[in-house]
Specification:
disordered C terminus, mainly beta, single chain, 21 strands, twelve-stranded mixed β-sheet, 278 residues
């Protein structure tokens, strides 16, 4: 276990307990380490209990690592007090409950990762305030509701926007097309999204991976997809009512593709390079 006496180390600025076999709960006494700028407890899967609300007292913290650490319960709203935080890493735990809107107060955040948990409720619109984010990954949770249009304000995103594997519904906001600096991955697959593929995707000229598989998208594929010259992978599979024709350039990339040839026709799926859908 982590000894409570660690709270006596009041001059400590960095504490790394990563990659051990620590057991028991995270002691509330960590909240006494008010000079901490970095706290790393990654890869301690035998830890249990919740994230102490006292972590919110560590107002000088710039990085909080708690990936694969066995914790459960809710994400404390008190984390919204960590205004100096650049990185928040909570992935691969058993966290549940609503993702707190107070996280939107952390306007210095560059990376926000909480994938593979049991988070519920809707995505807070306050995420749109995190304009310094370069990566946002909340995939593989139980999030519901619609994708907030405010995510279109995250113009600093360059690496990831991954909301796949949730229960999100409604249309894909056209505002996503404002994320023109996104060069790696836009992943919205395995949700319950409906409506059409936004023409505004064509503004994501440098995006390498676009994944919207396993939704309920419909309508014709926008010709603007052909403007996405950076695409190397496109997954539109398992959207029963998407229709062709395929835009130029898109036909030349390696992509899973699903199409209803006619409104009453059979579903066709192809995979490969340069394979046309008719």
């Amino acid at each position: 276990t982590i000894p409570t006496q660690v709270g006596l180390l009041n001059k400590l600025t960095k504490l790394s307990l990563a990659g051990n076999q620590l057991e028991g709960e995270i002691p509330t006494h960590l909240g006494l380490l008010t000079r901490l700028v970095q706290l790393n407890m990654n890869d301690n899967e035998r830890l249990e209990g919740t994230i102490p609300t006292e972590i919110g007292l560590l107002t000088g913290l710039t990085a909080f690592y708690l990936t694969m650490s066995g914790v459960s319960g809710k994400v404390p709203t008190e984390l919204g007090r960590l205004l100096a935080l650049n990185g928040l890493y909570l992935s691969r735990n058993n966290l549940n409950g609503v993702f707190p809107s107070e996280i939107g107060m952390l306007t210095r955040l560059i990376g926000l990762y909480a994938f593979e948990n049991e988070l519920e409720g809707t995505l807070p619109t306050t995420l749109g305030q995190l304009t310094m984010l370069t990566g946002l990954d909340l995939s593989q949770n139980k999030l519901k509701g619609t994708i907030p249009t405010q995510l279109g304000l995250l113009k600093g995103l360059t690496a990831y926007l991954d909301l796949s594997g949730n229960q999100l519904e409604g249309g894909i906001p056209t505002e996503i097309g404002r994320l023109t600096q996104l060069v790696s991955t836009l992943a919205l697959g395995d949700n319950r999204l409906s409506g059409t593929v936004p023409t505004e995707f064509g503004k994501l000229l440098s995006l390498a991976t676009l994944d919207v598989h396993s939704n309920s998208l419909s309508g014709n594929l926008p010709g603007e997809l052909g403007l996405m010259r950076g695409l190397t992978f496109l997954d539109l599979s398992h959207n029963e009512y998407l229709c062709g024709p395929w835009p130029s350039h898109v036909e030349r990339i390696h992509a899973w593709r699903t199409c209803v040839a006619k409104p009453a026709g059979a579903i066709m799926a192809t995979v490969g390079l340069g394979m046309a859908v008719v």
